[in-house]
């Protein structure tokens, strides 16, 4: 059996909110004591309705958010409380693809500049190789090199997501959190992006945690499925087992709702 690339143990993140100055505090258990592993080379789907805690889980793994409890292991290294300086070399190995590219692709930068950014930050290639590497990345995601001079608004939604994917693979990661990467796209384009992710996984030997609220997408791309409900993982298992023989009532309802 493949080794785990990521281990999540008893992870929690609670948000304290106060709707107004006078109202009492409310605690939202966005992620509530979850544990799971992602094995090398697999695509683990994380599914659940809106607000179930999927994005918070992804952000905790990326350490974009600080957890309240629990621990995270990447390749058996405990990264839970690792300082940013130490995390730096690991950062390039763990990447994220977001749902919306408008938050991540600076509209004032050309596609070439956007791809140069991660290459420079993480010193992936030497200065003289930058231009070639940008062209190579564009080709890997199915875009022609001529797109280098364009700005994000000159591309279609699908093309922009390809640039988002190119930025993620620029640092030669081993593990990518794909957070609803096709949800903002037309159905006709969704399949193309999913197939691109599958091709890249194979050619670059990647592992994905694939977050989606769409069971059809999860069914298409994932090997295993974890079902999240109200901050907890209520079921996890091989894709066909979970889909054909769901044990949890919430999973059963989720599956029935799309049949
Ligand atoms: N920064 C925050 N402050 C307060 N509450 C938050 C914050 N981020 C998330 N939440 C709350 O935590 C819960 C989980 O949110 P999260 O975005 O992780 O869910 P999700 O399953 O990814 O939903 P969606 O598919 O709609 O993005 C929700 O109730 C959300 O409102």
TrEMBL record:
<dbReference type="InterPro" id="IPR017871">
    <property type="entry name" value="ABC_transporter-like_CS"/>
</dbReference>
<feature type="domain" description="ABC transporter">
    <location>
        <begin position="6"/>
        <end position="255"/>
    </location>
</feature>
<dbReference type="InterPro" id="IPR003439">
    <property type="entry name" value="ABC_transporter-like_ATP-bd"/>
</dbReference>
<dbReference type="Pfam" id="PF00005">
    <property type="entry name" value="ABC_tran"/>
</dbReference>
<dbReference type="GO" id="GO:0016887">
    <property type="term" value="F:ATP hydrolysis activity"/>
</dbReference>
<keyword id="KW-0067">ATP-binding</keyword>
<comment type="similarity">
    <text>Belongs to the ABC transporter superfamily.</text>
</comment>
<dbReference type="InterPro" id="IPR050319">
    <property type="entry name" value="ABC_transp_ATP-bind"/>
</dbReference>
<keyword id="KW-0813">Transport</keyword>
<dbReference type="GO" id="GO:0055085">
    <property type="term" value="P:transmembrane transport"/>
</dbReference>
<protein>
    <submittedName>
        <fullName>Oligopeptide transport system ATP-binding protein</fullName>
    </submittedName>
</protein>
<dbReference type="InterPro" id="IPR027417">
    <property type="entry name" value="P-loop_NTPase"/>
</dbReference>
<keyword id="KW-0547">Nucleotide-binding</keyword>
<dbReference type="GO" id="GO:0005524">
    <property type="term" value="F:ATP binding"/>
</dbReference>
<dbReference type="InterPro" id="IPR003593">
    <property type="entry name" value="AAA+_ATPase"/>
</dbReference>
């Amino acid at each position: 059996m493949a080794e785990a690339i990521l281990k999540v143990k008893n992870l929690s993140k609670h948000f304290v909110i106060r709707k107004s100055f006078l109202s009492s505090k409310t605690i939202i258990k966005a992620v509530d004591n979850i544990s799971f592993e992602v094995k090398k080379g697999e695509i683990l789907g994380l599914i659940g309705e809106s607000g179930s805690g999927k994005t918070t889980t992804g952000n905790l793994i990326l350490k974009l958010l600080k957890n309240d409890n629990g621990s995270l292991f990447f390749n058996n290294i405990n990264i839970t409380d690792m300082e940013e300086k130490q995390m730096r070399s690991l950062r390039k190995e763990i990447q994220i693809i977001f749902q919306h590219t408008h938050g991540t692709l600076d509209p004032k930068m050309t596609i070439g500049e956007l791809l140069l950014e991660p290459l420079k930050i993480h010193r992936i290639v030497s200065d003289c190789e930058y231009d070639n590497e940008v062209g190579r990345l564009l080709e890997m995601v199915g875009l022609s090199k001529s797109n280098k001079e364009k700005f994000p608004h000159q591309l279609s939604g699908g093309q922009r997501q390809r640039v988002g994917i190119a930025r993620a693979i620029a640092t030669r990661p081993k593990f990518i959190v794909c957070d609803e990467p096709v949800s903002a796209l037309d159905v006709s384009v969704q399949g193309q992006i999913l197939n691109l992710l599958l091709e890249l996984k194979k050619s670059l030997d990647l592992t994905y945690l694939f977050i989606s609220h769409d069971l059809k997408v999860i069914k298409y791309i994932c090997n295993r499925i974890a079902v999240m409900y109200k901050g907890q993982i209520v079921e996890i298992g091989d894709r066909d087992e979970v889909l054909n023989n769901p044990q949890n009532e919430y999973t059963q309802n989720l599956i029935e709702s799309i049949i």
